Amino acid sequence: MLHEPFVPRLVLLSCALLLGACSNIPQSATPVSRFGQLSCAEIDSEWAQAQESRRAAAQAKADSWHVVMPFAVVARYTNASTVHADAEQRLVSLGEQRRDKGCAQTAGS
Fold first, then answer.
1. Distance in angstroms (rounded) separating the CA atoms of residues 95 and 55
2. How many CB atoms lie within 10 A of CB 79?
3. 109: which DSSP letter?
4. pLDDT of 11
5. Residues 6 or more apart in contact with residue 50 via CB below 8 angstroms
6. Fewer CB within 10 Å: N-end or C-end of the chain?
7. What is the full DSSP assignment across 15-30?
8. 3-state secondary structure of 3
9. What are the Cα distances from residue 22, in Å, to 27, 57, 83?
10. How confident is the model at residue 21 (pLDDT cuts 50, 70, 90)?
11. Quick one: CA dihedral 66, 71, 76, 80, positive or negative?
């Protein structure tokens, strides 16, 4: 049987792991609905941010098994999958805006 003082620590550790699983992937605050109003330079900046989000999310998905507690693995993997899918959609939308505005593609895009 677990000692009573140990149980609250286990709960706190579990909560910390869950919060950490969801908070370390960078995401842009610019809504997709604003993409049509962005300049070419702003599109390039958003593109770079979306690529970084996609990279970080893919890494988080790959590393999710490192978490010891099974529910934390699921939380981390699910969050990373959501951010990855969002980044992919942002890149598609940004590419459409870039094409529609006749923006030049920058290196890596």
1. 18
2. 20
3. -
4. 53
5. 28, 87, 90, 91, 94
6. N
7. HHHHHHHHHSS----S
8. coil
9. 11, 10, 10
10. very low
11. positive
Q: What pLDDT, in 10s, does the model give residues 47-96?
A: 999 999 898 888 887 776 665 667 777 777 888 889 899 999 999 999 99
CA distance 102 to 29: 24
Place of tokens 């978490």: 67
What the block records as the tokens of 10 is 């286990």
Q: Would you say residue 101 has pLDDT above 90?
A: yes
The pLDDT of residue 9 is above 80: no
Q: Which residue has the higher pLDDT, 2 or 86?
A: 86
Q: Which two tokens stand for residue 25?
A: 């992937």
What is the model's pTM?
Answer: 0.57
Long-range contacts of 14-21, Cβ-Cβ distance < 8 Å, separation of 24 or more: 14/69, 14/71, 14/72, 17/67, 17/69, 17/72, 18/71, 18/72, 18/75, 21/60, 21/64, 21/67, 21/72, 21/75, 21/76, 21/79
Q: Name the strand (E) or helix (H) holding 7.
A: helix 6-23
